[in-house]
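B., you asked whether I could sanity-check this one before it goes into the benchmark set. Here's the sequence:
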Amino acid sequence: MSTILPLSGPSGGGGVGPGPTYSNGIGGGSGSGADWSSIGLGSSDVGLGTSGRGKGLPLVFRRLVKFRSMDFELAFWQLTYLVVAPRRVYKQTYHHKQTKNQWARDDPAMLLLIAGSLGAAGIAWSLLYRLSPTSALTTILLMIFRDFILFSLVTSFVLYTLANRLLLAPSVPHSSISDNRVEYAYAFDVAVNSFFPAFLTVYVGLLPLAAVVVRDNWVCLWVGNTLFLIAGVQYIYITYLGYVALPFVARSELFLSPLLPLFGGYLLSLLGFNVAKHALEIYFGQGWK
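And here's what the prediction gave me:
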């Protein structure tokens, strides 16, 4: 198994600096693999991500217990900019491709930070609804593993399949086929990125308004439904930014197409369907306690 190395490089400078390099170039033997020199990457530029066993989601999950190799400072920076300036997060993907030879992150720090945030939100909602310890634990686990992990895995698989089958641009000269395909691990990264701002809007933003949005009047209905609309727009837009950052994905504007049914559904819901109230009833058995 490949040795797990810190992501921030041997100099100790956290953040976006280049990762460690290898003079022998992992996987640099004869046979399969792209000609790195032909696309501007020497063998020393190929990071740990080029290993056949160390690439993609399995590597991320194996690193979940390797806390010393995680760059939490960079992950926190990325989470902050996902809210205020999401384009800046995706500007780093090209640099990661140059240094690690993969578009996806190989650091699970962001997963842990979001899971921790969901855990804190679950505790807050459990206190608000006066849940028993068992029900509170169930709520937290559902938020983390169903709402976040499972939803991100399913969404990323659907978009990964759609992008690779229908939206790839013609191959770039002097590059391998794998260089012109969306990595599933990158699609998962995009889903994770898109989830966080939506989480803040719904899971956190709805907390102080829980007693308001369930009332039977149109203004409260509008407030709750608008929160869910904002969360949906955030999710779709950040997903779009993730795929438009890949130079080989054509017609990336199609990732914005869900905005049309989203706005249509929002307008219809204003006729009397309280999205927030129904969501709380599904989660906790009743709109307000």
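One thing to flag: The mean pLDDT is 78. Otherwise nothing jumped out at me.
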